[in-house]
Design brief:
Structural class: alpha/beta
Helix content: 10-25%
Strand order of the largest sheet: 1-2-3-5-7-9-10-11-12-13-14-15-16-17-18
Strand content: 15-25%
Largest sheet: 15 strands, parallel
Distance between the termini: 39 Å
Number of strands: 18
Radius of gyration: 24 Å
């Protein structure tokens, strides 16, 4: 089949399903469409993207309510001005039917939110995520009265979860910005129930944040301390809260007011900046009374020891203590019985892996960072034999770990005892 522009306009709907499986999620009605710029040779991936946009034009006037685009080629220059103009022209014609729009893109494809957004009046979900470019909101979103979920995410590129890459990318995106419209102080729609703002240089929250009375989920990610973090305290009724790198460690003590929280994520916070006793006290003060908490993440928080407050959180189903290399113990006990998902460093699990057996309901285990040595790998693998509910383990041992005789024996024993247990890379871990 020749890949020509005229042909793209006549491709049957199910042809995209057969040849490019990542594009169509619902091939019968095509209400939901997704496209990912693949990693094949530059000219092929560019032509493939152009063909998709041409095909997307045939959907104008038809019932398409969800559209997700991941347009992040390795070379951003592949996103030409002609491609950009064609795509936005088609999106404008589809605006009246779209309820869900997500665009993650490089190459200046998404750099501002202007008056064009008002034509998408049916939107309930909007994600705009430029990679390598800033984003400026230049108009009010108040006319989007159906909008429930808004994500504005500015990054240099998507980070990978290991300590070396995090350190190398610590300065990435220092020239990026997420700008809000000063001429429209109340630019956020009152209908919002979920908001995520993400940018390395974000230092000031929009003042109208305090007026979102229906907010149930709030996610803030930056590498700058927020100058008006007190605005967060206006939303003690949220059920899900994520704070990444944006508040001082002293803010943790004020979390006790968020009594309805079922999910809390604190990452890249300087919790280890003080002495260990002070950190433990802050966590106890802030989290002990969160009786509805089912998900807790404290990744990249420089913890110096296992957070004792976990012992008082009896409803926890998900716990993430990843990338805290100074946490070198994981005490067993009844506090682990409700856990279904656990992420922790090898350094925390390896010294006494049998302690994991207290987590009798654990279904998935994510082992982060690098194991101290091959003996540690063998000990952990043997401990997994006694965990019948465990269905998947995610880990990357790294180039320094050798497949010693002991590791091979442990793997053989585990394969015999638990033949259905899946071993996967950290990249495959979706939680």
């Amino acid at each position: 089949m020749s890949a020509s522009a005229p042909l793209a306009l006549t491709l049957p709907d199910n042809c995209w399903q057969q040849r490019w499986a990542d594009i169509i999620r619902n091939s019968k009605t095509l209400e939901s469409i997704g496209f990912i710029w693949d990693k094949t040779a530059a000219c092929k991936s560019q032509r493939r993207a152009e063909l998709f946009v041409d095909w997307l034009g045939t959907r104008v006037g038809k019932k398409t309510s969800e559209l997700e685009l991941a347009l992040t080629p390795d070379n951003p220059s592949l996103i030409t001005q002609a491609f950009k103009n064609n795509l936005w022209c088609i999106l404008g014609q589809m605006a009246a039917t779209l309820k869900h729009l997500a665009i993650k893109a490089s190459g200046n494809l998404v750099t501002d939110v202007g008056p064009w957004i008002t034509s998408f009046s049916q939107l309930e979900y909007l994600l705009l995520a430029p990679r390598g470019n800033s984003l400026s909101v230049r108009t009010s979103l108040g006319s989007l009265t159906r909008l429930k979920d808004l994500v504005l995410s500015v990054k240099q590129h998507d980070l990978v979860d290991n300590m070396e890459d995090q350190a190398a990318l610590a300065g990435a995106g220092h020239n990026l910005s997420l700008n809000f419209p000063s001429q429209h102080p109340a630019w956020l729609p009152a209908s919002l129930t979920a908001l995520r703002l993400e940018c390395p240089t974000l230092s000031t929250l929009p003042g109208c944040l305090s007026g979102l009375s229906g907010l149930a989920s709030l996610e803030l990610s930056t590498r700058s301390m927020l100058t008006n973090s007190s605005l967060i305290l206006a939303h003690t009724g949220v059920k899900s809260l994520e704070l990444s790198g944006c508040v001082p460690s002293s803010f943790v003590g004020q979390l006790s007011a968020f009594t309805r929280l079922s999910a809390l994520s604190l990452s890249h916070l300087p919790l280890g900046a003080g002495n260990g006793a002070a950190v433990q006290q802050q966590l106890q003060q802030g989290l002990t009374e969160l009786k509805q908490l089912k998900q807790l993440s404290l990744s990249y928080c420089h913890l110096g020891m296992f957070p004792e407050v976990v012992r008082s959180l009896s409803q926890l189903a998900f716990l993430d203590l990843s990338f805290n290399p100074q946490v070198t113990s994981f005490p067993p006990g009844d506090h682990l019985r409700s856990l279904e998902l656990l992420a922790a460093d090898w350094a925390a699990i390896a010294p006494e892996p049998s302690g994991l057996q207290s987590a009798s309901a654990l279904e998935e285990l994510c082992l982060t960072d690098r194991p101290p040595d091959s003996d540690s790998v063998a000990r952990v693998l043997r401990a997994l034999c006694a965990m019948p509910q465990l269905s998947a383990v995610y880990f990357d041992t790294g180039p320094g770990t050798q497949m010693t005789h002991d590791v091979v024996l442990a793997l053989t024993e585990l394969a015999r005892e638990r033949p259905t247990l899946q071993f996967k890379s950290l990249e495959d871990c979706m939680w």
